[in-house]
Every structure is written in C-alpha cells, then in structure tokens.
Amino acid sequence: MSAAVEIQNPYLPEPYRLIRRYPLTDDVHFFQVRAVDMDRALSLKYSPGQFMMVSIPGIGEAPFSISSTPSRPGLIEFGIRRVGRITDQIFKLKENSVLGVRGPYGTGFPVDKMEGKNLVIVMGGLGAIPLRSLLQYALDNRDRFAHLALIYGARTPGDMLFRKEFLSLMDRDDIQCLLTVDKDDTGKWPGHVGLPTVLFKHLTNLNPKDTNLVVVGPPVMYKFIVAEALKLNIPKHQILMSLERRMKCGIGKCGHCIIGGYIYTCLEGPTFSYWDVTHMKGLI
Asked: Residue 180: which domain range?
C-alpha cells in the first residue's frame, strides 16, 4: 500500500504575524507580516506583481498586491487602503496580532526576460503598491538591468505613497527618478508638478527595442501612458500592466475575475502586456 500523499487545501490560510504597521496616507496603511513558521517565512517564493489573500477569522478575506521584494526574504509587505468591512478589521489589528494569509497567486512580471534591458516603471496613485515590489527588486539587482527609470504621479505630496522612500531615490545616480503631483499644496515639493505623461520627455538613454515599460494606476491612466510609450516606439509586448483590482478568490473558482467568458485574470494575470490587451476585449 502506497504512502498517503498530503494535499494542501488551497483555501486554507497560514498564520502570519503582524510585525510592523504605519500610515502611508490617511486611508492607506503599510503592513509588514511574517509567517509564524520561520521555515515557511524564509522559503516563500514569489515574483513582483503577484498577490496574496489576507483573512480575518469570522470576517472574510480579500486580495492584496505584494509590495515587498523577493530579493529580501522573510517578510511580506502590503499597502492596504481602508475601503470596507474586511479592511476596517485589518486596520484594527495591533502589531504582534496573527492573521491568515494564503498565496502567492497570479502571474508576476517576467523579470528574467527584463534583465539586460532598460526598465521604465510608471506608477499612478495606488499603483505604487504592486510596483514598489518590482522597483525594489530592480534596485537590489541593479547590475542586471540597463537604464532604470521611475515615474510616479499623485494628486498632492500628501497623497504620494512611500513618499520619503521615493524622494530619497532622487539623490541616486543609478536610477532616473521623476516624481510629480497634480497640485503642490505645501509650497515645498521638490519634484515636478503636472501629469505623469509630461515626464516622458525627460526620459534618457532609451533604445525602444531594449526597453520594458510597466504601468499600474487608475484605469483612466493606462491609455495615456500607453500612448506615450507607443510614441517612443516601445513594442506592444514590452508594455506591461497589472489588473490586480479584478482579483477575488485567487485560484479561478469564484469567476469574479473572468473576462470574455474564458480568461481568468487571477490565473493568466494579473500582469498582462499591451499586446494581450489589444487582443482581449474587456481587460481594461
């Protein structure tokens, strides 16, 4: 008789401990968690662009993009916006509390294919949360990428997530950091004022065939950023985006993320290229 094979229930969350939390803005907080099982914490594999399901017993669960980088193992980080019942309860958690986490899920950004090429990361609003993972990965593996550029647009300086962290990048010479706000209500903003699209004219050292551009932000943002990327002659399959807002169960069972009757965003995405978008109605 053969030995029994242990099959892990994909719906079963693992216990994670809340290590650190602090506000990024009034309604978005930073959460740093670690698996209670240290072997699991140190062995967890994921890619920038993937997401995890976070749960509170008796309340429910919700998907959140991973904001940390796999190049710094042991801790998982999220930026969570307070928008409903589940996030209300998450915001009530104190440091050292235990919550449920399962995953990672989805298809991340193809970092292996990006290596050796230029990388332009374009963030808008909450898009900073998943793209911080890719940015930190690129910075931690700086020698694997050619020219690295960051464009991030927010409404005001106070609305910019990870503001101090990103402002510090302006002093580095190994990344072109272009930060902008729609309105400077402080009078002390050191970056640009205006829409992210106007910053494309500042990009330097870009051979379009050797450039990947990744954008995540409000839905209205995509068509304008993609238009700028196409003006630079960046190939459609090298323009990438994340549609993490469509996530629900994470494993393709609930049907919440299905598009066109057969595309499961949580399984085939949430990262897609603009080439995918032009051939799949309803992705954006």
From this structure: 111-240
